[in-house]
Amino acid sequence: MGVNDSDSRKDSITSSTSSSHLDLELLQRLFVKFEPDLTIDSYEEAQGSGRGDNYTAALFRIALKGHTQPEGSSKKLKWEKSIICKRLPDCKIKREAFKSEALFRNEVVFYNTIMPEYIEFQRRQLAAVASAGRKHEKDQTDTDVAARCLELDEHSIFQAIPQCYLARDDLLVLEDLRVRSFTMPDRQAGLGPKQLEAVLVELAKFHAVSLAYKQRHPVEFQKLTNSLEEGIFSQANAEWYRKYYDVLTRNAIQMVRQTVPEKKEHLAKLEAFLSNCFGHLVELVNRKSELSVICHGDCWTNNILFRYANDGAIAE
Question: pTM of the entire structure?
Answer without folding.
Answer: 0.80
